[in-house]
Design a protein that fits this description.
alpha/beta, Rossmann fold, 5-stranded parallel β-sheet, 5 helices, 5 strands
């Protein structure tokens, strides 16, 4: 039996976290959540997620800064990041996707979210296998 996928969702909106929890539960993913970038970084000391869902627009440390901290503080963690945001401006989308991450606009369709998670995990595993 394959290991259970572990999803870490980082978003300051409790309704979004609840929605993602339901989607992850439906897909039988192990789910962890953080309500800020700082809390997400703390959780990464304890868990090794298979994928990270990261809100772009958060107070104090936004998703782009959180992503930078994840990469600098956990350089061996090779995990796909899916940015979630209502921001449609090209500069934000370009910056987020320049790291090879996926960008998904809110409101989030549950089937599209699951498809993005599955694709990101599959692609990350294929990339690691080819190294």
């Amino acid at each position: 039996m394959a290991a259970k996928e572990i999803i870490l969702a980082i978003d300051d909106d409790p309704a979004v976290l609840k929605f993602i929890k339901v989607v992850c539960h439906h897909a039988a993913y192990e789910y962890h959540s953080a309500d800020s970038g700082a809390h997400g970084l703390e959780l990464l000391e304890q868990i090794k997620p298979t994928a990270i869902l990261l809100d772009v627009d958060m107070p104090e440390m936004d998703g782009l800064k959180t992503h930078d901290k994840i990469r600098s503080d956990f350089p061996k963690l090779k995990v796909p990041v899916i940015f979630l945001s209502a921001k449609k401006d090209l500069a934000t989308i370009s910056e987020a996707t320049s790291w090879g991450s996926t960008y998904l606009l809110k409101p989030i369709d549950p089937q599209r979210l699951l498809a993005k998670i599955e694709t990101a995990i599959h692609d990350a595993r294929a990339k690691l296998a080819s190294l």
